[in-house]
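Saturday, quiet lab. Running sequence design on the structure tokens for the scaffold JK sent over.
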């Protein structure tokens, strides 16, 4: 073999090995960065969802507590007294205004 060919194959093999190593390293580092980004976004999304659900539960608990503290709602529905039903109907605009975000 000529001297030129003897140097060509090892040099090409070295270049190809270096390119393969750089490509593998880039793939692994980009995969790790993408996983970290996804995990961070999922964490933020989970916290926001938890906050919204907590507010929803708290607001509904307040509404139920408000309705439960006033006996007119339960009694009016139970005995079907027209005067109590009218009183309840008159209070509903205030309730819907107070709890409009539900």
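Result came back. Writing it out in full:
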């Amino acid at each position: 073999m000529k001297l030129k060919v003897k140097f060509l194959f090892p040099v090409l093999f070295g270049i190809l090995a270096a390119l393969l190593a750089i490509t593998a390293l880039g793939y692994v580092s980009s995969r790790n960065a993408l996983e970290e980004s996804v995990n961070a976004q999922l964490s933020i999304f989970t916290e926001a969802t938890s906050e919204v659900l907590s507010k929803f539960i708290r607001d509904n608990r307040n509404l139920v507590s408000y309705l439960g503290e006033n006996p007119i709602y339960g009694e009016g529905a139970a005995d079907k007294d027209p005067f109590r039903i009218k009183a309840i109907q008159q209070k509903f605009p205030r309730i819907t205004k107070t709890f409009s975000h539900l």
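Notes for JK: Helices lie at 3-69, 71-79, 82-98. The first helix runs from residue 3 to 69. Ask whether to fix the surface positions before the next round.
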